[in-house]
Every structure is written in structure tokens, then in C-alpha cells.
Amino acid sequence: MTNIILFGPPGSGKGTQAKFLAEKFGLLHISTGDLFRYEIGNNTPLGLEAKSYIEKGALVPDSVTIGMLKNKLDANTDVKGVIFDGFPRTIAQAEALDQLLGASEAEVNGIISLEVAEEEIVQRLLLRGKDSGRADDQDETIIRNRISVYHKETAPVFNFYDTKGKGIKIDGMGDIEAIANRLETAVKAL
Ligand code: ADP
Questions:
Q1: What's the pLDDT score for residue 176?
Q2: pLDDT tens across 98-124, in order?
């Protein structure tokens, strides 16, 4: 199995690029944000719980997120590998992921971070909010809160894997295709 974490702050282009990489390399794309939005759309108990955090720009608690991720992996045991998009977002989630993959003798092969300037991110998210109607992308206070949570809780996840020699940084500025090409090269080198 080839398992890749696509990493970066909200608005760095993880979703767009994860879809491209999944298709290019025949991997399963798992986006925890998409999974939560699906649950919210179906008014499930999990969705209702997640919504209260997401609309504030906070992280959904680890126990909820890890449980949901485990279910998704359990339902897809025969895949070539996974592109993780938006997970892990805390050290506890990273440790849980290593355990889950380790149970089937797999591991995280690399973590690729999309590097994007902070003001660019805010502008991209506000634009996405206008187009998609996503409530968490329409309010600058919520956006700034998500970015601050990213720096405090999520950024250490890169170091967690980088100290194991698995970290890769990619320039996430510029046009989508150019970034996709950089990513493709990085994944081939894994
Ligand atoms: P973005 O990367 O633009 O913030 P996502 O669609 O990945 O968007 O996530 C939307 C929201 O869902 C996050 O702000 C957070 O509240 C919640 N979420 C997604 N993934 C996780 C996770 N791994 N742990 C906790 N909360 C998460």
C-alpha cells in the first residue's frame, strides 16, 4: 500500500490536488471534511455533533474523527493506497493513523505539505465561500480561527513525520496544473 498525507492549511488546495493524485495513481481519496459534510447533509447524529464544531472553525474531537476514519478504512481494505486529505490534523490523530495502518502492515509513506502564503489562503477561502456557499468559508473571523488552530494543533503533525524522514514541502502558489505537476514528481519519488 502507498499511503500519502496531503498536508497544508485550510485553503491550500488539498482537496483539488488530492482528487488529481488519487486518479493519477489509482489511490482512494479520503477527505474528512467531505465525510463530515456528507454526515451533516444527512442529519446523522455524527453530523449534528460535527456541525457544532465546524461552524465555529474548531476541530471536531479526535475520538469522533478517528472513529469515522477507521470506519472508512475498514470499508475499503482492498485499495492500493490512500491519499489522506484533512487527516491527521492533530498528533493524537497521527498516532491513531499509524496504529490503524500498522495493524495491516502498512504505514504512512510520505507527508506532502502545500506551502501557501497566509493572505493568499484567506482570499482563496473567501472566494470559495462565495462560490460554494460553505458557511465556514464566508466569515473572516471563522477563517482566521481555523488558521490559528492549524498553526497550534495541526502544523506539529508535519514535524511528527518529518523527523522520520517522511516530510516533503511543495510550493503551493501558482496555477493548479503547475502544482499538480510538482506533486506528481514528488509522489513518483516516494
Ligand atoms: P479546510 O481544509 O478548508 O479547513 P476541510 O473540508 O478539510 O476544510 O474541513 C472542514 C472542517 O471540518 C474543519 O474546519 C474542521 O472543523 C473539520 N475537520 C475536518 N477534518 C478534521 C480532522 N481531521 N479533525 C478534526 N476536525 C476536522
A1: 97
A2: 999 999 999 999 999 999 999 999 999
Q: What's the distance, Cα to Cα, between the start and end of the chain in Å?
A: 12
Measured distance CA(51)–CA(36) in Å, rounded = 8
Taking only Cα atoms into account, the Rg of the chain, rounded to an integer number of angstroms, comes to 16
Q: Which of 37, 128, 144, 169 is catalytic?
A: 128
Catalytic residue status for 14? yes
The answer to whether residue 124 is catalytic is no
Block residue for cell numbers 465525510: 35
Q: Is 33 in the pocket of ligand 1 (CB under 6 A)?
A: yes
Which is the catalytic residue, given 134, 152, 164, 166? 134
**pLDDT, tens only, 15-71:** 999 999 999 999 999 999 999 999 999 999 999 999 999 999 999 999 999 999 999
The rounded distance, in Å, linking the Cα atoms of 101 and 110 is: 13
Q: Which fold has domain 2-185?
A: Rossmann fold (3.40.50)
Cell triple for 152: 497550534
Ligand 1 centroid vs 37 CA: distance in angstroms?
A: 10
